From TrEMBL:
Residue ranges constituting the GST N-terminal domain according to the UniProt record: 261-341
Name used for this protein in its record: GST N-terminal domain-containing protein
UniProt feature, compositional bias: Polar residues: 40-50
InterPro entries: GLR_AS, Glutathione_S-Trfase, Glutathione_S-Trfase_N, Thioredoxin-like_sf
Ranges annotated as spanning the membrane: none
Source species taxonomy: Eukaryota, Viridiplantae, Streptophyta, Embryophyta, Tracheophyta
Length: 341
């Protein structure tokens, strides 16, 4: 072992937040206490387990584009027509000082090839092998549910803590003029405000990005909020600056087909390649489970074993059977499969 790198982000302790609990019939598990207020909501959403809840209309017939073939993964390659998109998305790394690159308790050590067992993922660059680990809090049994959209600095704050805590999240995109999930948030919580979080593991539902962050680090972390997410107005301003390079992408609805099952995206917030895919998922209002896998995430090993290679973004679409790497081609696939012409 040639050396060890330990990254421990500066943290600011926060006192526990007082939680307001809600229960929505048909959404939370039956173990949620009956004393919680119940508000029946006509569901038009996609369930995490697959299948559509409460939708009378038949599911659209979905299939890959004609002659579709998933591309071979190309490490750090950028398709020429996407150079400006990736550059614009990468500006966020500067404004946010890399928040969302590493998971909580990140640690890395250089190792020799002989120390790596067959089939184990390690980060390799220029002949160096870097083994990465992390220290994570309790894991939720079911994905956290978050209603949000890309071109919102408050939503980005919550997505960053999701990455730091290495949580899986079922995202319900709420772009402007979106017909499905924006109205649902107003029905559930009483107002169209984003982000809106629902934790089906505890029955807790809430607005306000700072309150959501406090809740998540208290329940699924060590109780400490990373410095770059604890600076109040400065945090919000830098989150806004981080989106300058994307000029509102991921904020407005593109008419689309609502899939019967949520898509799955392996990604993390700080990656510019993942960002351009997430923007299109939001614009098309496609529910998706985000398998967060920033540096140090144990899910990198899971994807490595699943796909024989680690690279993000990686999309799995249970509605068509498509599994693919490469951000530019994923965007093309999503538009061809789900956008209404």
């Amino acid at each position: 072992m040639a050396g060890v790198l330990n990254f421990r982000p500066l943290t600011v302790s926060q006192s526990p937040v007082t939680l307001k609990r809600h229960s929505v019939r048909g959404w939370f598990p039956s173990r949620v206490s009956a004393k919680f207020q119940e508000t029946p909501v006509p569901s038009t959403s996609v369930s995490a387990s697959g299948g559509t809840e409460g939708v009378a209309a038949p599911s659209p017939i979905l299939s890959p584009p004609p002659n579709f073939k998933p591309p071979e993964p190309k490490r750090f390659a950028v398709r020429p027509d996407k150079i400006l998109d990736i550059f614009g998305a990468a500006l966020a790394l500067i404004f946010r000082l890399g928040t969302g690159v590493f998971v909580s308790g990140y640690s890395a050590s250089f190792v020799s090839p002989a120390e790596i067992p067959p089939g184990e993922y390690v980060f390799e660059l220029a002949g160096f092998k870097l083994k990465e680990t992390s220290k994570l809090g309790p894991r939720p049994d079911n994905p956290i549910e978050i209603y949000e959209f890309e071109s919102c600095p408050f939503c980005r704050k919550v997505r960053e803590i999701v990455t730091v805590l290495d949580l899986d999240v079922l995202f319900y995109p709420c772009p402007k003029n979106g017909p499905n999930f924006r109205p649902k948030v107003a029905q559930m919580g009483g107002k169209k405000q984003f982000p809106y979080m629902v934790d089906p593991n505890t029955g807790v539902a809430m607005y306000e990005s700072d309150d959501i962050i406090k809740y998540l680090v208290g329940k699924y972390g060590d109780g400490n909020i990373p410095l770059m997410l604890s600076l109040g107005l400065l945090t919000t301003l830098t989150e806004g600056f981080a989106m300058i390079g994307r000029l509102g992408k991921g904020g407005s609805y593109i008419p689309s087909k609502l899939p019967p099952k949520p898509l799955e995206l392996w990604a993390y917030e700080a990656s510019p390649f993942c960002k351009v895919v997430r923007e299109v998922l939001v614009e098309l209002e496609l529910p998706h489970i985000l398998r967060s896998c920033a540096r140090g995430s144990p899910k990198r090993q899971i994807l490595y074993q699943k796909a024989g290679h680690f690279q993000v973004p990686y999309l799995e679409d249970p509605n068509t059977g498509v599994k693919m790497f490469e951000s530019a081609e994923i965007v093309d696939y999503l538009m061809a499969t789900y956008a209404l012409s």
